[in-house]
Fold Methyltransferase type 12.
Amino acid sequence: MTAQAETVAELRHRYRRDLAPGVERFFEPRRVTCPWCSSDRLRERLRTTDLIQHKPGTFVVEECRACGHRFQNPRLTPEGLDFYYRDFYDGLGARTADLIFRSPGSEARHRAVARSVAPFTDPRRWLDVGTGHGHFPKVAKEVFPRTAFDGLDLGEGVETAAREGRIEEAHRGSFTELADGMAGHYDVVSMHHYLEHTPDPRRQLTAARTALRPGGLLLVEVPNPESAYATLLGRWWLPWFQPQHLHLIPSRNLRGAVCELGFTVVTTERGAAHQPVDLAAAVALRMFDLMPRGDAPWHPGPPTALARSLRTAVLAAALPAVAAAYGLDRLVAPVARRAGLSNAYRLVARRD
């Protein structure tokens, strides 16, 4: 038995204990009004499963007909979030997550995000919220070598980032609870694909305003739920990212919220924030959904020899298809950035 298999076997006992009462306990009661505008004009937009880890459970995304906000409903409880995040960015998933965040593509995107504020500020102190292991600040330091970058996150990765020199100061905990202690301290607060993971995005924006000095900049990048790809690809559109994405916020809603808090929107970019992976990710998710499950502790037991062979065969068949889809993503990217297909948008706002 390999070391990985031994770890999975050890963890399986805990997962069995967690799953024995069923996954229904991981969800709050379904709400009947929109968490953004309080309208009761809701419709089901998506019903899906965990397409990445394949943990058990069904997740529903609803859309508000009044304001266009999309949100997970019923929403996961804190206990549920802990269960579904476990072994994704840390534990069993740490190595894969690290490879993704350290990839040349990820670093190029981080560099572009940092450069998006260069026309508006030369910051002295910068707080990256949801920093994880500090990969964004490490790259952003290349763009702003004189800036002191701090990081905030719930997980232990933020402390690792400080020890390894990717950030100067680590803040571990909830931003909404820690913000008062850093009031007026920062020239820039960034939230790079963080806001959609939070139970209450408005409170996060309020915390950002608290942490910023007057004239400081808020930098937010989030998925674009109005992308045509969301409709074209259905449940295979990666930015739905269930069960982790709790809110998908249309740009007009986010702009309105920051203005209500006393910000002035400096710029909103769609094309520049687009990541050309939609078709490749959709093909990969579909193929992974078809193949036999791998050895993960939330599955009842390890796969049989036949299942392992079938999984290897499907994976071999999938790779050329994913590569071809990625080539098409790159080919159509210039059009996608201008034709309503952009899968993300970026907002920069100045605190008044």
User: Anything to note?
Assistant: The domain at 14-91 is CATH 2.20.25 (N-terminal domain of TfIIb). The chain has a mean pLDDT of 96. The longest strand covers residues 212-223. The radius of gyration is 20 Å.
